[in-house]
Specification:
The complex is a heterodimer.
Chain A lengths: L5 H35 L3 H9 L5 H4 L7 H10 L2 H23 L3 H5 L5 H29 L1 H4 L5 H29 L2 H22 L13 H5 L1 H7 L3 H24 L5
Helix pairs in contact in A: 1-4, 1-5, 1-7, 4-12, 5-7, 5-9, 5-10, 7-9, 7-13, 9-10, 9-12, 9-13
Chain B lengths: L7 E8 L7 E8 L4 E5 L6 H8 L7 E6 L2 E2 L9 E4 L11 H8 L8 H11 L12 H13 L5 E5 L7 H16 L3 E6 L11 E6 L2 E7 H7 L2 E7 L2 H10 L4 E4 L5 E6 L4 H7 L4 E7 L3 H10 L5
Parallel strand pairs in B: 3-8, 3-9, 6-7, 7-8
Antiparallel strand pairs in B: 1-2, 1-4, 4-5, 9-10, 11-13, 11-14, 12-13
Classes of the chains: A mainly alpha, B alpha/beta.
Chain lengths: ~270, ~300
């Protein structure tokens, strides 16, 4: 087929500036979190406070040792804050990829050339994956650079490991958003479904750690397989990674099948 | 089978989807080297037919072939240029980047050809599309459609927003395309957009093809009017009682009579010749009236 990866390249040019701004934003955000560390490091009062929290709430906040470098980064950055911010980007890109073009009435023109829907869809997938990969990698940089002045001397392996895990987690929700929205041609539904599931499963995962009857449901939550604290403390988690990647591939494939078969809206 | 392969062949095509009315049982050939007009009110199924040929909506039954290739095969679209009826381009893109983005699937456009067309249409391609007037945005679409020199062109309401000078340039581009052997499918909801360009006109109503005729044949069906003035009231009344026509209308002054007719004027002139006619004026039939007839379903009678 002519054209090759032309849409991927075209989208990249179209969105390069916005990706740059997002990157700067992520850097600023991580710098801010890192810069706050010296003021709480070695303050036992925080850990004390944590241990006094109700059992049920504790897992929602993070590991027990909030004041160690790993504990601090895991709880303040990787557990919820950073993935949630990048998720806003991923869900936005995912839903814009196909459904956004359809709502803007530009999808017809893209597909009126000699390109298959499969090729367009996969190129759009690649564009979304590229975006969240760039932001994930960029998010590593401040903590590495600021290790010395902030005292966040975390092994680089731990940072890479949690970033890879976070990327796989972001991949799942971004692809879910893309798949759902491309299946119906509406951004709104993709946003609602993926954001709703992300928030709902966050609660299930957190509360499931202390509420017994919720425990079995934890296995179904992407947050359980993300597991930022374990990724930082234990290194790569190949099993969890495989679960997240496999789930991403499945939702992506389902979206493609439906997108290929349906009638596009004029 | 005709000797010349049709650029596009639509066989018993039915598209139904959702609550929206689709198209039903359409048979149509778009010959190479000809302009086929596609006429119908909004919602008659013109755009659906084009979008089915582009595989944007799938046939419920029947098929569309582009130069013999099934429309569901992406290769069929290598030959097609499409100008959507409601062309929307990302406003941030300049003309150049819009052209690059929307020709990416066919590997880009010939630079000299684009420059030549931009000059002919008087368009500045370095400006962001969002800052262009509707007419200028349409020009970007025209370049996108005419630059690749495709052998099948789908032009959906192409001259909306174009001033008369540009409409002439557009007509020239269409003629060049058919001279080089392309088939053109030109859709519109007004006949005047097709007149002078289309060789044949396919009329759609409620998703069905209700007529496929040459413009000449259609014109013959258009009702003409003749206005006669007689020397006196009696003369006028005498004429009215003996003439046979679609409608005969005596004006308030008593001596002026308007006669509407289709076909030959001969019998009306011969009847009028038996009376004292002081003046005679005739108006050619409006083709659009024929179409209003199709739209409201009265033309077949």
């Amino acid at each position: 087929m002519t054209g090759g990866w032309a849409f991927f390249a075209s989208d990249l040019r179209l969105r390069m500036r916005s990706l740059l701004w997002w990157s700067l934003g992520i850097v600023a955000l991580v710098v801010l979190v890192d810069a706050f560390y010296p003021s709480i490091a070695g303050d036992p009062a925080l850990d004390q406070m944590m241990s006094e929290l109700p059992e049920a709430l504790r897992p929602l906040i993070g590991p027990d040792d909030l004041t160690s470098p790993v504990g601090y980064l895991a709880s303040q950055l990787y557990l919820f804050f950073l993935p949630t911010v990048i998720l806003v980007f991923g869900i936005g890109r995912g839903t814009s990829a196909i459904a956004g073009e359809e709502e803007d009435h530009t999808l017809d023109l893209l597909l009126s050339g000699p390109v298959s829907r499969t090729s367009l869809y996969l190129q759009k997938v690649l564009g979304v994956v590229f975006g969240i990969a760039v932001l994930s990698i960029v998010s590593l940089v401040p903590t590495l650079v600021l290790a010395e002045p902030t005292g966040l001397d975390v092994p680089i392996d731990a940072l890479v490991s949690v970033t890879v895990q976070m990327f796989a987690f972001l991949l799942f929700f971004s692809m879910l958003a893309m798949s759902v929205s491309a299946s119906v041609g509406r951004k709104g539904l993709g946003i609602a479904v993926s954001a709703g599931i992300a928030f709902g499963t966050f609660l299930i995962d957190g509360l499931g750690q202390s509420i017994e009857w919720l425990e079995p449901l934890r296995e179904l939550t992407p947050w359980r397989w993300y597991d930022a604290t374990a990724a930082m403390k234990e290194g790569f988690l190949p099993g969890s990674l495989a679960v997240l990647v496999a789930a991403s591939v499945i939702v992506t494939a389902v979206g493609l099948i439906v997108f290929r078969r349906r009638n596009l809206r004029a | 089978m005709s000797m010349v392969e049709a650029a596009m062949r639509v066989d018993d095509l039915t598209v139904t989807y959702g609550k929206a009315r689709g198209i039903e049982g359409i048979n149509l050939e778009v010959p190479a080297g000809e302009v086929t007009g596609l006429l119908g009110p909004n919602g008659a199924g013109k755009t659906t037919l084009l979008r089915a040929a582009l595989d944007l909506v799938h046939p419920t039954s029947g098929s569309v072939r582009i130069w013999g290739v099934e429309s569901t095969d992406p290769r069929a679209r290598e030959q097609i240029s499409y100008l959507p009826g409601d062309l929307l381009l990302p406003g941030r893109l300049t003309g150049w980047s819009a052209l690059r983005r929307y020709s990416a699937a066919r590997g880009g456009l010939n630079h000299e050809r684009v420059v030549e067309l931009a000059q002919r249409l008087d368009l500045d391609l370095s400006r962001p599309v969002g800052q262009l007037s509707k007419g200028n945005r349409q020009k970007v679409g025209l370049i996108l459609a005419f630059a690749p020199q495709s052998t099948l062109l789908f032009l959906d309401e192409p001259t909306s927003g174009l001033d008369p000078l540009l409409q002439r340039e557009f007509a020239a581009l269409v003629r060049e395309s058919i001279t080089s052997g392309a088939g053109v499918l030109l859709s519109s909801h007004v006949l005047s957009e097709l007149e002078g360009l289309a060789d044949r006109v396919a009329v759609l109503r409620d998703g069905a093809l209700v007529a496929l005729e040459s413009i000449t044949d259609l014109r013959a069906r258009a009702a003409s009017m003749i206005c006669l003035r007689f020397a006196s009231d009696e003369q006028a009344r005498g004429f009215i009682s003996s003439v046979i026509a679609e409608s005969v209308d005596q004006q308030d002054d008593g001596v002026t009579v308007n006669v509407t007719f289709t076909g030959d004027v001969d019998s009306i002139i011969k009847t009028a010749a038996r009376f004292h006619v002081t003046s005679l004026e005739s108006t050619a039939g409006e083709l659009d009236d024929v179409f209003l007839g199709f739209y409201t379903g009265q033309a077949d009678s």
